[in-house]
């Protein structure tokens, strides 16, 4: 059976510390002078004009790793009690490294450059000269770190049998001003062949839609600016649906209340168009005190800051988790002014009509038995992510129909 191409999605920022897009080839590839990369461009046009995307793609064909070839030989020999045929050994070796493209495994990383806002005084010394104060180091290193740099989608070879395993095999630079200081955050957590990849800018509320059909090269389909979603701000996570569309969470409030409440769920077409926006505010509101005797929502009465998102289309259910009000924590998420700015709520949506998800329930996660000295570490505080069970049967033949939620502040897992 032919192995399908798979992308293992990671939401990592600040992986590459490039001063600017023009320095990419010099800084990214200088550690391996024997590798060869091809520069190519792609132009897309939207309401704000033409945008040119730059790809740097490894042109060296992947070959079998020497260690893996020896392992394949040993495995084939063992399978026939020490009498492997030439054909068996050749088959074992060739299976160790499929050619690039279809059938090859890759990891896709949404990456951004460190900037001045990421550095403390201690960081400045550390990056200047390994922790020691060195005027020459400060002079030479810090200017590069403080310059703006292009965000990028990075492709890493994840095929263990190949000598290119673990190497960067493509870099796709986001064009112009749209690619500066977005603070790359999440993509959807799971990707299947034929789907787009959606990635959001945490600081800019831009939405990027990518085409993965030509891996390892990545093609940008569309960029949606913040005004495409006036009902919410600050993209977090995405969940792809069987029809190729996706839902995304906007953790912050409408543009007039940027980063506050209520956030919303957005329905996105396969090519990145905004199909619908749906406020996460509960129409009936929430009681001021939850079942634990704690304030449910200390501000604006909604607690609607959807972060994590998971869907079970077969059950016609979507679940989102409320993490925190981003405008109040984004400058220092460790020491917020009020621990109640972190949320305790999970929202359930009916997606029988996928084009019109309907909020049907808001649940407050229960307080656990632990009595932490820091009230900001309560088990039910900061519900960051949700995780679904899958629609295939367990060993006993039953199909699970549950969802998990987890709290970042309290380090607890909840299940329903």
Question: What can you see in these coordinates?
Answer:
With 416 residues, the protein is α+β, with helices and mostly antiparallel strands. It is built from 6 helices and 21 strands. The protein has helices at 24-28, 66-79, 86-94, 121-129, 135-146, 326-329, and strands at 6-10, 37-46, 49-58, 105-111, 152-157, 168-173, 184-187, 196-201, 207-211, 219-224, 233-240, 246-252, 264-268, 274-279, 306-312, 317-322, 345-350, 358-364, 383-388, 403-407, 413-415. A 6-stranded mixed beta sheet has the order 1-4-5-6-3-2, with no helix packed on it. Strands 7-8-9-10 form a 4-stranded antiparallel beta sheet, with no helix packed on it. Strands 11-12-13-14 form a 4-stranded antiparallel beta sheet, with no helix packed on it. Mean pLDDT is 79; it is low at 1-27.
Summarize the helices and strands and which ones pair or pack.
Blueprint (H helix, E strand, L loop, with lengths): L5 E5 L13 H5 L8 E10 L2 E10 L7 H14 L6 H9 L10 E7 L9 H9 L5 H12 L5 E6 L10 E6 L10 E4 L8 E6 L5 E5 L7 E6 L8 E8 L5 E7 L11 E5 L5 E6 L26 E7 L4 E6 L3 H4 L15 E6 L7 E7 L18 E6 L14 E5 L5 E3 L1
Parallel strand pairs: 1-4
Antiparallel strand pairs: 2-3, 3-6, 4-5, 5-6, 7-8, 8-9, 9-10, 11-12, 12-13, 13-14, 15-16, 16-17, 17-18, 19-20, 20-21
Helix pairs in contact: 2-3, 4-5
């Amino acid at each position: 059976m032919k192995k399908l191409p798979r992308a293992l999605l990671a939401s990592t920022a600040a992986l590459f510390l490039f001063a600017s897009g023009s320095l990419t080839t010099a800084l990214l590839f200088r550690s391996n002078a024997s590798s060869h990369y091809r520069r190519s461009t792609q132009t897309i046009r939207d309401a704000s004009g033409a945008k040119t995307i730059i790809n740097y793609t490894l042109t060296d064909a992947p070959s079998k790793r020497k260690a893996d070839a020896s392992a394949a030989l040993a495995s084939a020999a063992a399978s026939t009690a020490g009498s492997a045929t030439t054909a068996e050994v050749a088959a074992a070796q060739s299976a160790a490294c499929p050619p690039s493209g279809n059938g090859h495994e890759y990891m896709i990383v949404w990456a951004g450059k460190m900037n001045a806002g990421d550095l403390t005084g201690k960081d400045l010394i550390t990056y200047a000269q390994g922790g020691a104060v060195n005027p020459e180091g400060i002079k030479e290193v810090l200017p590069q770190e403080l310059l703006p740099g292009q965000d990028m989608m990075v492709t890493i070879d994840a095929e263990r049998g190949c000598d290119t395993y673990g190497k960067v095999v493509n870099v796709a630079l986001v064009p112009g001003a749209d690619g500066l200081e977005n603070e790359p955050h999440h993509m959807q957590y799971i990707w299947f062949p034929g789907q787009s990849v959606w990635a959001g800018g945490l600081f800019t509320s831009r939405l990027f839609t990518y085409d993965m059909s030509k891996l390892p090269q990545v093609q940008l389909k569309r960029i949606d600016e913040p005004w495409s979603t006036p009902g919410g701000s600050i993209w977090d996570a995405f969940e792809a649906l069987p029809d190729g569309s996706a839902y995304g969470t906007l953790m912050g409030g409408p543009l007039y209340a940027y980063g506050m409440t209520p956030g919303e769920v957005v329905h996105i077409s396969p090519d990145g168009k905004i199909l619908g926006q749906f406020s996460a505010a509960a129409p009936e509101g929430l009681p001021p005190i939850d079942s634990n005797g704690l304030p449910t929502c200390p501000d604006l009465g909604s607690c609607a800051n959807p972060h994590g998102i998971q869907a079970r289309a077969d059950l016609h259910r979507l679940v989102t988790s409320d993490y925190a009000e981003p405008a109040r924590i984004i400058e220092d998420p460790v020491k917020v002014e009020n621990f109640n700015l972190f949320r305790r709520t999970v929202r359930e949506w009916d997606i029988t009509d996928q084009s019109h998800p309907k909020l049907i329930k808001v649940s407050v996660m229960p307080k656990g038995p632990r009595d932490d000295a820091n009230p900001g570490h309560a088990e039910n505080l900061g519900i960051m992510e949700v995780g679904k069970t899958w629609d295939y049967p367990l060993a006993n033949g039953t199909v699970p129909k549950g969802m998990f939620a987890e709290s970042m502040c309290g380090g607890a897992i909840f299940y329903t």
